[in-house]
Amino acid sequence: MPETPPVLPPAARRDEESYLSFAEGLRAFTQRAVAPQMTAIAEAQLRAAQPASLEEVKRVLDPLPIVAARNRLMRSTQEMKWVGIHEAYQACEAELLAALDQADRQGPGSVSYDPAFDYPAYFREARFHLQPGGYWQHPLAGLYYHSGTNIFFTGRNTNDAIQRDLVALIPLPADSQVRRVLDLGCSAGQSTTALKERFPQAELWGIDISAPMVRYAHWRAIQLGLEVHFAQMKAEELRFPDASFDLVWAFILFHELPVAIGQQVVREVYRVLREGGVFALADFPNRPPEQAASLAGYLRHFDTTDNGERYGSAFVYSDFAGTLREAGFRQVVLDAAPGNWIPLRVCVK
Ligand SMILES: C[S@@+](CC[C@H](N)C(=O)[O-])C[C@H]1O[C@@H](n2cnc3c(N)ncnc32)[C@H](O)[C@@H]1O
Questions:
Q1: Looking at the whole model, is its pTM more than 0.85?
Q2: 210 lines ligand 1 (CB under 6 A)
């Protein structure tokens, strides 16, 4: 796979760079050293207590010092990350904003957004991953999000590795025709550019509800020399004609939508796909609701309360497979890449 040149502008000062590297190291330590021990202790306590509800699980786990330490570290490293990122880019904010303005009018590719866009309350009121101003309020939210994911994924997201690896797993339509591809909830456009690399002849579209995201994604695609079109759009109200795409992709979008909005999005995807087109998505695994009384349910709940993932638990314990089938997809494979770190669902219209 060819190298992608890094496009994140460097932090303005070494101080901030080392602060961010400390936050990333602390997060990696939490995940790789603290979490396994916490899991062993928590599982043993839950086996002994046999809790029947999430509330009972909380009563068992909350008082355990190693659980409290893990939770504190997970939350604090997220908070530190945002402080560090804002400080890192503050000194060069004016230049970055000017670069975004200039990129708006440049190619390859294009970007469109509406400065008066009316963000729906379910999105406006969420503060995913505790990002200050959410995904949309700060004009540099796209750059901040992209920087943040590098820390969040503790070294696994350099060079768009996560998106490139996932996109490589998407199966082709039966007739192998891939002329138009749509990436839903594209954020910084890392999946979108990975898709363009995989399907260089195809017309690529990345849409996101957030204007700062699509603007940053376009700026980034220009740096990579890739022709991709980005547009501010709600995934539940796609402004594309029926049957106009061969492939639709969504990476970690659905767990950030209220369940009812997710259902609308699936129906829209079905509408814009042509007959035989493929809808592939990678997201949190779904579980039967009775499994919420578990360590996994507890951690998912923590992510909801302490990491801004306001709709994460509802998505995980919803009947998402039912949603995909009810939309009309004639083939629905819920785990198309067994053993992958995140389940890949693949549906065919
Ligand atoms: C976790 S990020 C997705 C990451 C991205 N797909 C990637 O490949 O790195 C979720 C994105 O979904 C966007 N989003 C949330 N609700 C949306 C909606 N209703 N329609 C379109 N995008 C939405 C957010 O603005 C955010 O950029």
A1: yes
A2: yes
